Amino acid sequence: MVLIPVSPLFAGKVYYTSLNSGASTFAVYDTSTNIWTSLNPYDTSTQMAVDASGNLYAYNSNSNAIELYNPLTDSWSFVMAGPGTTPSFGNLEITNSGRFLYTDGSPVDNLLYYSDGGGVWNTTALPFQPNAQGDYDPTTNQYVIGEWVTNTAHLVDPTTFAVTSFLPAVNPSSEH
Question: pTM score, two decimals?
Fold first, then answer.
C-alpha cells in the first residue's frame, strides 16, 4: 500500500496494488468516506513510488516503462524507460531531486539501479542482496532497503550510496 499525503488529487487516499506478477489488483481507499474502489487493473510486481508532490509512479516491467498515474482519468502515462529488469518483486522510489531508485528483489543481484531522468539507468553494487522492502522519506532524504531473506535494514544515502547497516530486528518467536 502507498499512502499519498500531499497533492489535492491524492489527499486522503491510500492506493493498493498486488506485488504478485500477473495479479493486476489496483484499488484506492478514500479515508473521508471509508470506501475502497477498484481501479483499472495495473500489473506490476514492484512497489509504487510517491514523490514529494504526491504523484504516484510505477515500474511496468512488461513494457519496461516508468509510468505516472492520473487519478482523474484512472490511467497511466509514460515517463521514461525503466531499468530493463524482470523482477520477481521490486521496489521503486523517487527522491526530492527526481532521482528514481530501484531494487530488484529477486535473489540474482545486489544492484541498486538509479536514474536522474531520460531513461538512462546506472547501477551501484550494494554490500547486501536487497529485497522488495524499501522506503524513501522525502522529509529526511533517507532511503532504507531491506535485505533478502533477513530482517536486516540498510540506510542508503540516495546521493553518495554510502550504506549504514543496522542489526536485525529481534525475532519475537526466538525470545523466551
Answer: 0.84
The helix (H) or strand (E) run that includes residue 116 is none
pLDDT at 144: 95
Q: Decide: helix, strand or coil at residue 144.
A: strand
What's the grid cell of residue 43? 500489473
User: In this structure, are strands 65-70 and 13-17 parallel, antiparallel, or unpaired?
Assistant: unpaired
Question: Please, what is the end-to-end C-alpha distance for the chain in angstroms?
Answer: 33
Q: How far is CA 35 from CA 17, 23, 28, in A?
A: 16, 22, 8
Please spell the DSSP secondary structure of 62-106, one letter per residue: TTTEEEEEETTTTEEEEEEE------SSEEEEE-TTS-EEEEE-S
